[in-house]
Write a structure and sequence with these properties.
By secondary structure, the chain is an alpha/beta fold. The protein is built from 14 helices and 8 strands.
């Protein structure tokens, strides 16, 4: 009888997916109680062909969406196709280290959501951006022994009971592009008083090379396509952000003026070019905050204009 379903949402991540499957095969000893579900959201890199060639000892389900349905829907489909009462979600670019499954399942209360640890691959060069991405928020030391706030939930590597996934209602399919679906899911967990905790021993390496430019585009897309919906759904979330200083909803006129003068395409472009030109410089965190959240603000302003 299947007890644990490992759900792997994937899109054009063939190489890291095969690494993940290899690692999981080494860790799963009782083949009868595990299943692996690959939810392919329209990959065009040969993922389907590679998976179908596998002679995999663990019960493996492969599903493909064509056309792609988006991150939220793809994860929900994995849940719907699962047989286990324990669910481990592991994105296709997350490669678990030895002991990952044991760490996720050992002494697990079904009332707790566990977030795994995420680090930059050791074989790849670690720059200032990577240090910024993997040392903040949920990775900070302040949450080692205390539940995470819902806004810091991320879906790339987590454990949840099927019962709690059902209670929270899954991921909101209205989030179709990058950004928002994780925060929304975490805030709904928080509303239901389901604790979210970090599991440091459940370590994965994140094989997804990010650049300042790619993240700026993602945050702009988040601001333009999803942010308005997110703050309407969770008004209290806006209070957890420096909304006044960003010139967002209900900001005082003086803050809106400051935001217009400092958060604009020209200023962000200058700072972005400077950071990219001197990428080895030890830039302070607030510079990256400014670039990413500043682009969210630009996208949000664009969405307000289109609505108006």
């Amino acid at each position: 009888m299947i007890e644990t379903s490992i759900i792997i949402p994937v899109r054009n991540q063939k190489k890291s997916l095969l690494m993940t499957l290899k690692t999981l095969k080494r860790q799963i000893r009782n083949l009868k109680i595990f299943e692996v579900i690959i939810c392919d959201d329209g990959s065009t890199d040969g993922t389907e062909e590679e998976v179908k060639k596998l002679r995999y000892p663990i019960f493996l389900k492969y599903f493909r969406n064509d056309p792609p349905l988006g991150r939220a829907v793809n994860r929900n489909l994995g849940y719907e196709r699962s047989s286990g009462q324990n669910l481990i979600f592991l994105d296709g670019d997350m490669v678990p280290t030895e002991g990952y499954i044991e760490a996720m399942l050992t002494a697990t209360s079904t009332d707790i959501v566990k977030l795994g640890n995420v680090k930059h691959p050791p074989a790849e060069q670690t720059g200032r951006l990577e240090k910024y991405l993997y040392s903040r928020g949920r990775f900070g030391s302040r949450y080692k022994n205390t539940p995470l706030p819902g806004r810091l939930f991320t879906s790339n590597n987590f454990f949840i009971s099927k019962r709690n996934f059902t209670r929270v209602g899954g991921f909101d399919p209205n989030f179709k592009s990058w950004g928002g679906e994780d925060i929304d899911f975490g805030l709904r967990l928080e509303d239901l008083e389901i604790p979210i905790r970090i599991e440091p021993a459940a370590l994965t390496y994140h094989y997804h090379k990010r650049t300042v430019e790619s993240l700026m585009k993602d945050f702009y897309s988040f601001g333009k396509n999803s942010f308005e919906y997110l703050i309407k759904k969770h008004p209290a979330f806006l209070e957890q952000l420096p909304a006044h200083f960003l010139g967002l909803k209900n900001a005082h006129l003086i803050y809106k003026l400051i935001s217009k003068l400092t958060v604009n395409k020209t200023a962000l472009g200058i700072v972005s070019k400077t950071v990219s030109s001197f990428e080895k410089f030890n830039w302070p965190d607030f510079i990256f905050d400014y670039l990413f959240w500043g682009n969210l603000v630009l996208g949000y302003r664009k969405s307000e204009k289109s609505i108006g």
